[in-house]
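pinned: reference chain
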Amino acid sequence: MENTRIRIKGIVQGVGFRPFVYNLAVKHGLKGFCLNDSEGVVIEVEGDPTAFVEEIRNSPPPLARIDSMTAEKIASNGGFTGFTIRESMSVDGRSVLVSPDVAACGECLEEMLDPSDRRYLYPFINCTNCGPRYSIVKDIPYDRPFTTMAPFVMCPECGNEYHDPSNRRFHAQPNACAVCGPKAWLHGKPEAGVNYEAISAAQKLLKEGEVAAIKGLGGFHLACDGGNPGAVQKLRERKRRSIRKGVQSNKPFALMAPDVETIRSFCEVSAEEENALLARQRPIVLLEKKKGARTVADAVAPGNRRLGVMLPYTPLHRLLFHPEGLFKALVMTSGNIADEPIVVENGDALKRLSGLADFFLLHDREIYMRVDDSILRMDGKTGRFIRRARGFVPDVIPLGEEMEEVFAAGGLLKNTFCLTKGTNAIVSQHIGDLENLEAMEFYKETLRNLKNTFRADPKIVAHDLHPDYLSTAFAHEYAAEHGIPAERVIAVQHHHAHIAGAMAEHNLIGGVIGISFDGTGFGEDGNIWGGEFLIANRRNFQRAAHLKYTRLPGGDMAAKEPWRMAVSYLAGSGGVDSLKGFRQRIGPKAGIVEEMAEKGLNSPFTSSMGRLFDAVASICGLRDEITFEAEAAIELESIADTDETGLYPFAIIGSQPLEIDAAPLIRAIVQDVNRGTATEEVAGKFHNTVAEMALKVSMRLKGVYGINEVVLTGGVFQNSLLSKRTKEKLEAAGFVVYMQEKVPSNDGGVSLGQAVVAWERVKGD
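pinned: its C-alpha cells
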C-alpha cells in the first residue's frame, strides 16, 4: 500500500485551512490526517488524491494563499480508520506565513446584530474567516496556546463549535463568547457594565463632546464625534503637538464611518475606492472631500482637500455605530503622544493618554504585536501605500530567488525594517520616526517577534548611508552582537534603496532610470540629495542627473520653515527683493538667512525636490512655516488647478551628472506672483513643470544609456497630481513606468531596497 504526503506552504494557518482539508477529504472519501507544523500544513491520505489535490489548489479558503504545494508517495503506516486533524508540531528552523489581522466578516456581523443569536452585541465575535491574527500571535504553529487568547478557556458551547468540522468556527483560534471570552468595560466614568453596556455608555459620552481612548485590535485610538467642531478642536489641541513649539499642528485626523453610503455624504468615492474601503484589510483610504458638505468638522483636516476614511474593522468598532444614525463619522486617530508608538497596554494607556482622553473604553484581550492602521490612496485600480501596517503585515513580498537571510534596518523617518527568508522579504509594519527611546523599543520588540515568527537568523546586515541615524547605529550594534563580520554590514545610499525596492517589487533585474524625489537623503558626496536620477540596478548605481544644488539655510530648520528655502532659491535667481513684499512679510530674519546662504554658514548643499516644493509654497504665500512634515507640499498640491496645462522654463546643464537648474522656474514664478496670477494656476504650472523635468532628463538619459524602463519613487511621488502628470508624460513618450504597490514610495519602502542591494553585493557575480 502507498499513501500520499502533501505539504503546503503559504498563508495556511489561522485561515480555516485544516477544517477545509478535513471536509474536502470526507467529500472525496479519503482517510488520513492533516496537521500544522512550523512550515505550513502537512496532509497524509490513503487512496487516489488527484481530485482532492486539484480542489485544494484551485479553491482554497478565502483567506488562504498557497505559495507551494508538493505531493510524494510514501509507504503506508498500516491504514487509517478515518480522516482526523492531529495536534500541531513544531519543527526547528522552519517558518510559516502568519496571516495579517482580518476585518470582521459579514456572517459574524449578522450574528452580532441578531437578537436571537447567543453572541448578540458581543464585541469580540469572530470565526475562521475573520478576526485577529498577527496582533495576537506569540509563536508558531498558530494555535490558541500560542496566542493571547490562551487565558480564555472556551465554554462548552464554544468548545463544541471549535471541534465540529461542519461549524464555521471549527479550529477558529480566537473563538469566544460573552460567557468565556474577552470583555470590554469603561474606565474613568461611572460604572456602566461590560461589553455593549460599556459601549453604549461610551456612545453617550462621545455625543456629549468627550474624547475617548479606545482599545482596538493593534492598539489604542483616540476618538471623538467627527461632526462636533468643539470635540474635534479639543482633541486637536490635546493631541497635535506641532514640530514647532507653541504652534498647534494641522496634521489631519483619520475618520471612521459606519458604511460607504455615509462616506459618500462627505467624500467623493470611486468604484475603486469603494473596493479598497470594503477590502478585508479595511485600510484608511484618502478620499476627495465633497464640495459643500458640512458633515465633518473643518478641524479634522484643515487646509487639505482629502480626508482619510475607514470602515469599522472590529465588532467593537461596528457597535460604536449601533443603532444606525448615531454618528456620521468618528475621529479615530492613533492613540499615542506625538512621535511615540501607538499604546497597546491598558496600564500604559491610563498613564500616557490620561491628558488626552476624558475616558477609556478598555478590554482584556492582550495585544501582543502593536500595529497601526494602514493608509493608502487609489491610483486608478492600483492602491499606493502611504503607511503599510494593519491588514497587510506580515504578508511577504516574493523576491524571485533564494537569498541568504538579511536584516535591513531601514531609515530614520517613517521607519520600517526588512527581513528576508528563503525567497521572501518580510517588511515590518510602520514603526514611525526613530527619534526617541519608545520608538526604538517598539522597533526592537517587532524585530524580536518577526525573527521568531519566521525563524530568521540574518547573517547580512544593511543600513542607510547616513552615519548618524539611530537605525544605522542599531545595525552596527546588531552585527557586533551577532558576530557578523564588517564585510557583511552593507551601507546603502538612500535613493538607491528607494529604487532597488521598487525594482524588487516588479522583478526588474537589469538597469533602469530611477527617479527618486524626496526631502532628504545622505549622498555619496556628503551633501543632502533628494532630486535624483540614477542609472541603477539592484547592486550599483550611477548618479546621472540631479536638481542643481542650493543651500539649506539652518539645516533641518529649513524643512520646518519653508521661507528659508524661498530665501535660498530667491538669492540664486534674482535676489530676495525680486519678490514683492517678501522681505517685509518675513521680517529681519530674511536678511540673516540670506547672508547665511550666501556665506554657507550652517547651510549645507541640497538637491532636494521636497525643499523645492517648500520654496515654491512660500513664494506663493501659501505657507512660510509648517506644523507637520510635508504640509507645504500638500497644500501646494491641494490648491493646484488640475486643468492647467502651462509650463515654466528650466535648464538642463552640465554633464556626468546633468543638473536641472531651477533658477528660470523661480524667476518665472516670481513674475507670476508679482503680477497677481492666481495661486491655483501657479501651483498647476509648477506641478506640470516638475513632470516635464522628469521627461526631458529621462529622454536625455535614454539617448545615452538606451534604457526605456523608468522607476518613480520617493516621498514626493505620493503627490497624486505629480505622479499622474509624470507617468502620463513618460508613457506618452514610450517609456515603461513602474511605481511601488506593495510598500510605500516614502521611507517606509527603503528597508526592502536595502535588503536587496545588500544581498546583491554580498553574493557578487
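why pinned: The CA atoms of residues 93 and 455 lie 6 Å apart. The radius of gyration is 27 Å.
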